[in-house]
Amino acid sequence: MHAILNAIHWNIDPVIFEIGSFGLRYYALCFLAAFVVSYVLMLQIFKKEGKTQELLDQLSIYIFLGTLIGARLGHCLFYEFDYYINHPLEMILPFRNVNGSFELTGFQGLASHGGAIGILTALWLFSRKTKTNFIWIADRLVLVVPLAGAFVRLGNFFNSEIIGLPTDLPWAVVFEKVDMVPRHPGQLYEAIAYVIIFFILWAMYKKNATPKAGYFFGIFLVLLFGARFGLEFFKENQENFEESMKFNMGQLLSIPFMLIGFFLIFRKPKEIKK
Fold first, then answer.
1. In contact, 95 and 102? CB cutoff 8 Å
2. Alpha-carbon torsion 120, 125, 130, 133, what sign?
3. Do the Cβ atoms of 271 and 211 come closer than 8 Å?
4. pLDDT at 114 over 90
5. Phi and psi dihedrals of 39, rounded to 5?
6. Stretch 39-54: mean pLDDT, rounded?
């Protein structure tokens, strides 16, 4: 009882306001802020390196679609495969069949690892379409992705989702919409980690805007997915099947990204055509 009284209580309504069946959520605003801030920063990079705003506009469309589609499919396939394999339309439609009637749910369930795969796929398609080098684009895009990720995790905090394990630390948070247990604010841990990674990468770019191809991309993969791997130890598992696993799904999916990152960091330099 003492721990509960000393903890920070969080019970904010995730919906800011509703008009009929439409509700504006804090998560949606955070998601929008992630793209707006990323666009503004990427525009600075493109102007500095002689690229047009029109090219960035095309890239933004690819990234938006890649993020949304990848994150959605990632959640459905990595975390709730048994359900969605029998309800495939619900992967792409914002409603669920409940006892024969359709219930509007929105896209509840987005996985960051699926989003990462979606972004990489979108980058590959974009690079083919515009004849822009894939690694060159990736090296610049990852400078802003951590900040976007921080906004998304802030949205998770407003939704009282992706909660942490119980703790009696003084900054523990009671997510009253979930239970009355003081917990690690895992979403905020990740958001803070991502902001730190953003400042590290941004400072590196400002100091040396033209390192070997893939270097920024590699640093990003190691730092961000390394942080994700470590912080998973402070978070509740998202699905029941993870309870019997030594490392949860988020950690297992982080390992390949980190390995690719180390490869990009330590491989021999190679000149690329922008």
1. yes
2. positive
3. no
4. no
5. -65, -45
6. 93
Of 30-34, 45-49, 193-197, which has the strongest mean pLDDT?
Answer: 193-197
Among 151, 157, 154, 75, smallest CA distance to 115 is for: 75
- Report the distance separating Cα 155 and Cα 7, nearest Å: 21
- By the 10 Å C-beta count (0-12 exposed, 13-18 middle, 19+ buried), 22 is classed as exposed
Which two structure tokens, joined as six digits, stand for 55? Answer: 């090219």
Q: Is 25 annotated in some ligand binding site?
A: no
Q: Tally the C-alpha atoms within 13 A of residue 60's C-alpha that lie toward its C-beta.
A: 18
**Full-model pTM:** 0.84
Instruction: Name the packing angle between helices 112-130 and 249-266 (round to 10°).
Output: 40
